[in-house]
Amino acid sequence: MGPLVPDIISNDLNFIIALVIGVLFGAILEQAGFSTSKKLVGLFYGYDFTVLRVFFTAGLVGMFGIIMLDHFGYLDVNLIYINPLFVGPAIVGGLIMGLGFVIGGFCPGTSVCAAAIGKIDAMYFILGSVIGILLFAEGYPLWEEFYMSGNYGGVRIFNTFGMTQSLFAFLLTSVALLAFWATSIIENKINKIKKPAVRLTPYYIGLAVVGVFIAVSAFMFPPKKSGLLEKVENIEFVNSYPIKEMVSDELAYRIMENDKRLQIFDFRKYDEYKEMSLPNSISFSIDNFFEKEPNKLLSIRHKTNVFIANDEMTERKIAIIAKELGYSNIEILKGGINEFKSEIINYTDDKSPTNRVEETTFKFRKRASSVIPEMIKNNKPVGKVVKKQKRVVGGC
Amino acid sequence: MQTKYMNPYLAGFLLGLLLVATVYITGRGLGASGAIKSITVEAVTSVAPEHAADTKFFQEYTDAHAGSALKSWLVFEVVGVLIGAFISGLVSDRLNFTLEHGPKIKSGVRIFGAMTGGLLFGFGAQLGRGCTSGAALSGMAVLSTGGILTMVAIFGGAYAFAYFFRKLWL
User: Fold this and answer.
1) pLDDT digits (tens, 9 = 90+) for B60-73
2) Tally of domains in chain B
3) B59 interaction partners in chain A (CB closer than 8 Å)
4) What was the ipTM of the complex prediction?
């Protein structure tokens, strides 16, 4: 599961990767024509909308790519860098950058790109940026308070607008398609090109179809979690789903034997877990399935993972979610903790056995009912899964 | 003969794929102004170490970043940009020292404009916590409200001010 840094790719190797990514970044920008200020400012005077086309297409592909990686469980979005929102500084800083853009004709990335192929104006632009940063640094106490104001943290736009991610993706794609269409018309008008900007040639129809398809596909990738939660609300589906069950006696036996191949995942509320937890069990939640570090625990080979909750139905639902996400070796505790409590922990020998099997079972339960409560008392709860990895620090 | 530029939609598509790969591998997006900041910090701390130790901004930077300011992800990335753009310029025969400017202005005005624009962009990128790459493009891909707000402000601002500086370009 991504991001691959720092555990799969080391921090030092990451620098080499940065270099390679930079080479590709520079080459794409240069090939797109971002190495000339005339093309860049064309966006603001209406004679060349290349920047808008490249920028919007890249943003959309980036957005859909990340949504898809998240949807299929390849990327933990809780670990990636989300630019924090500082309302005032974002607006004022953005406006200053906008002013710099029309006066200077570049932005930092494109100026580096243009300087690389010998554009002298771009070199002066970079020199200017160094001075601008120095100015910001020297006067920092003056604007520090403003710089730190209006902090809302790493919020995401669909939450800000109170809509689903899919709906936002659909709207943004639609806006982009409209913008591509409208700007082509404006561009031709300003450059006095007589041919209509959008013609019904197979090429344009093809492009439009692909665009519309992409816009609609936003709804194909809803956040996976909500889809699965909805799926397990269907009782018939849940009951027909094959899940291996473990009876209380087996669990009790394996706990008493201190079975190292057994992993107990406790899905009850954390308060309930703190009050009473089985030896070596770990407090887990459905959210943990979608996080990079916790789900490593579920993927250890040759381990039996037992899901426990108060009742069997809850266990069943959670186990189905896990199985649908591709985890294996999952069993549930038959009858839930409730049955485990009545059969083992609070076992009373008021029933007399009617056959040999019952006789042995009752004998075992009697022994377990004295050993297991003692083990629970002496056990130090493991608690929740430790998440050491922090969100990546990024940004400029 | 200079080669034609790439189709913008294709370039955008490739750039988008690169962005996804970057986030998948490193957990962070692309950037540019941060590298210029690192170089500025490194220059100040080596030329005037006492002054840097007295200035809060540099202090905070060195506290947050262990080791040399140049050993940062973005510095490596931007060195890559230089190489990549150079190779691309070489392949497409676009390498030469030129000073591009609008038809109505002289070279001196263009140089002054480029430096002023750079100064504003450098300053604004600090305040806005990122430039067109780090805040706008990467922010849009991860659907960050902060990044998208900065993007709207950059392009909105540029359109709002464009009229007043049309003589520089048209």
Assistant:
1) 888 888 778 888 99
2) 1
3) none
4) 0.96
